[in-house]
Amino acid sequence: xxxxxxxxxxxxxxxxxxxxxxxxxxxxxxxxxxxxxxxxxxxxxxxxxxxxxxxxxxxxxxxxxxxxxxxxxxxxxxxxxxxxxxxxxxxxxxxxxxxxxxxxxxxxxxxxxxxxxxxxxxxxxxxxxxxxxxxxxxxxxxxxxxxxxxxxxxxxxxxxxxxxxxxxxxxxxxxxxxxxxxxxxxxxxxxxxxxxxxxxxxxxxxxxxxxxxxx
Length: 215
What we know:
Residues 2-206 form the Rv2525c-like glycoside hydrolase-like domain. This is DUF1906 domain-containing protein. InterPro entries: GH, Rv2525c-like_Glyco_Hydro-like. Helices cover 25% and strands 25% of the residues. It has 215 residues and is of the alpha/beta class. It has one domain: Glycosidases (TIM Barrel), CATH 3.20.20. It has a seven-stranded mixed β-sheet with strand order 1-2-3-4-5-6-7.
């Protein structure tokens, strides 16, 4: 992290929890968070919570129409506990990661929105800010275009891999939506890059949204 602090990147996303998190994160500790924060890094906490019932990929946790609301609250409480344990204070944003699904499946989409609303409401009740990561073709679109905005996240991180480093030029929805520093854009993935002698594969995002508050 110290070697990569060259000026181009200023923040890194960290998967703090969720039953669908892809792998264990043994190096993600409060000490690590404190160290990289002192180096000037900002951190973006991500929670991979329950996924849509109509999603085709296998996941350890999927919501149903019946349990979406209760599961959203449970998962949000867990996300707050994990963020707090890492030294990420109230006022921090926590981003819920929702992978692609068929938004034309009304029952499935309704379940997702119920889960997201419950997750968001619970985060806010504990003084954390609600963010959401999703795809412009599905999960982000569902939130951005929902008619009922009640308890939906106030910060949207949209995945659109068009290699445009912007949060405005390719914004596909209402230009008045998610303004006031509430947007992020994942514009490139699987980019093999070297900084300070260390080569890794990274995803790039343009960022104009809240992050974790540390220290």
